Amino acid sequence: MNNSTITKDAFNFLKELAKNNNKEWFLENKTTFKKHESDVKSFYENIQERLNTHDEIEKMKIFRIYRDVRFSKDKTPYKTHFAGSFSRLGSRLRGGYYLRIKPGETFVATGFWEPNKEDLFRIRKELEMDASEFRGIINKKLFKDIWGELQGDGVKTAPKGFDKEHQNIDLIKKKQFIFVRNFTDKEVLSNSFSEEVDKSFKAIRPYFDLMSDILTTNLNGESILD
Predict the structure, then answer these.
(1) Domain boundaries, the chain
(2) Fewer Cβ atoms within 10 Å of its own Cβ: the N or the C terminal residue of the chain?
(3) Rounded Cα–Cα distance for residues 83 and 43 (Å)
(4) Cα distance between residue 9 and residue 17, in whole Å
(5) What is the band of 90 on the pLDDT scale with cuts at 50, 70, 90?
């Protein structure tokens, strides 16, 4: 099993980086950064191992510390957090997991951040036809205790071709279908943090199972996979 904790030293490094977000300081402290980066990567690998006991993960991606400042007003060169994502296996398992570690702003997120045009239309048509199973899953107490409310941007009135007075228009308007759980610094630095992250990811499975079923079938429930 890989490293299962986030160290206070790693947190302190991110705090110092936030105060000294420039190339000179970073180069002077790059050896320290590489050590923390390695430890944090090991932590993410621990999360992947846990995920693979109850899901199928195709790949893990650790995001680079370097910021792309070409189109940003903020020209600071480095991110002040660690972040990584986990992609589920193949076309039949939809959804993904994300974890960001940052002092005061650590969170996990899951769901569908930017579904393509076809997937978004298919989800909306399903919700137009019947949203009872969808609502039943996201409104269960155990689910809500961990993940809270459905989040994500949406259109102001109704997508083209949909009735703005539809009973499920609150869901149909969504362009993103995501859930976010925030963690305190105390929780992040505890020995049980990796377990809590995994517990959160495990709790999202009924939602992923439903969405995977929706996105791999037509409105008649027939598979669209080869």
Answers:
(1) 8-215
(2) C
(3) 11
(4) 12
(5) confident
